[in-house]
Amino acid sequence: MFGGNNPFYKIAKSQSFHAIAAEFDPSISLLKLLELSIETQSLKLSSQSHARAQRLGLTQHSIIAQKLIFSYCQLRRPFDGQLVFDSLLFKNTHICNTLLSGYGKNQFFQESLDLFRKMRDGSAFGVVDDFTFSVMFKIVGDLGEVLVGKMVHGRSVKNGLVLDTVAGNSLMSMYSRCGCFDDSMKVFDEMPLRNVSSWNALISGYAKVKSWDGSFCRLGLWDIVREMQHEDLKFDAFTVSTLLSLCSGGAGSGDFRDKCGHGRELHCYIIRNGLDLSSGPDGDVHLGCCLIDMYSKNGKVDVGRRVFDRMKWKNVCAWTAMINGYAQCGKFEDALFLFREMQWRDGDGPNKVSLVAILPACSSISGLMGGKQIHGFAVRRELNHDLSLCNALIDTYSKCGSLSYATQVFEHECTRKDAISWSSIICGYGLHGQGQQAVILFDKMLQNGIKPDTTVVVGVLSACSKSGLINDGLIIYDSVVTNYKIKPTVEMCACMVDMFGRSGQLDKALDFIKSMPVEPGPSSWGALLSASALHGNSEMQELAYKSLIMMEPDNSSNYISLSNLYASSKRWDVVAEVRQVMRKRGLRKLPGCSWISMNGASHSFVVADKSHPCSNLIYVMLDELVSAMKLTYYNPDFVYLMEV
DNA sequence: GTAGGGTTAG
Question: Which InterPro entries does the UniProt record give (predicted)?
Fold first, then answer.
């Protein structure tokens, strides 16, 4: 009569069912039913309990009403909870806090703020307490509105509430999520009683500080960890996962030099202390995901795979973390294999995060077709309006050669656009040599009130450079530095050098390098090098090579192109010398690889490759192409390199 | 018998 998934079956099995029946107190059985509705995520059971409460005349029972509101909010129906709330003649703090938190959990922030105001102003609503403030700080942290946060903080002080630990932790987190780490530290310093969560909030705040220069904090990360241990507090799963994310080279990981070493130590800590990587069928797999991520980002994706294989329970997050690990390491075949395996093993199948993770792998191996398949999958699952997925699709389509598909996604599916969406489409136009269009889009982005970041600036500058739009590039560079206070990065400067260089203004390019506001990196000298090679200025070319090899003595590409430079002027003695230096340093150049997709199959080629079954035909066609190019564009060096 | 915080695969 009872199926295994039927909630009544569970309650019938439990002893408490008989105990409740024996007591004949309908409110207790109702509460148990409501708890069950939350546990089994059953909206039907909640509504049935609601109806039962009405039949029994228990709708004004404060504990039952509170539990009803809570269950509706947990089941993503906060307005059903509000109906219960509105019908209450007497509303205590407890009940108000429940609805307040329910609005927050469901992202109805305005409703939260309105309710908070009503509570603050007294009258028919319960008075504010520590619970109210802990909820409000969390909501303001989600909103990222520090001014609202300061007002709520002020109110908590005015109310004379001595900060309890949970509210303090929530306040700390609110400040650091709003980018005010100093204020978060101040709260931490002034807290009368701290627990592990307080330290966790401190560490995660530390991890969020983007441009870490060591001066903002009186303590280094390891000092924090050590002080925590001095207070006899043991790391819990939260501490370990936050620290693991700092072992992956992300923001704030400045003083984690031996990142993987620390990561392994944390892995040992997890094992020694019996922390769960995956605690049950519906349990937390977060620690496992963090470990996979940490190992993959440190180039040890195989160790990540071992962690993955040993996880007792895997949900879509675990599968996605592993797929992402493979994709980031360039192991695209493995990523795709796992993606397929996930679909027949994991009941839920991939979600939007999985699709974003697999897209780079997909487009690398199977080109446009792979991207289209994922896009089709997303449409069928109604995920195609998700912002991150749209951004990834725009990037994939433009990199796979279809600017028109990229534009379609940008214009019709990407309904809410952020800086990344604009950046992806602008880079796409740049990549396809349509600089003018990239500049128009950049202006449109600014008109839409999106603040440019360094990525989009690099995108538009490189588009200008490739299309010879020097004036536009210069105006954009000056404007973002002056009007948007963007500090020029090495990449931005390299774009400027490239822009001057390509147009033949080599002296201007060199002057820019000499006067640029950051230390010129290999990218700037590399840009000057290509430009001087293009315009046949061997003096400038040698200068750029010297700087490049001085800066990157172990980069084999520099030696190869230097060797090619001398080979083009037939100075074989110098060629031999360069090759000898490479041998002495043990440098080898990994051959580049090209690939093309045709009729659903991918064909890849390296230099002098004869392994393809149609190799003879391909080389005949290649010879014809070289001859045709010689006729239309005669540059001896260029043709020489083509024939090598 | 009831409400709160710290991590979260991109």
Answer: E_motif (IPR046848), PPR_At4g14850-like_plant (IPR046960), PPR_rpt (IPR002885), TPR-like_helical_dom_sf (IPR011990)
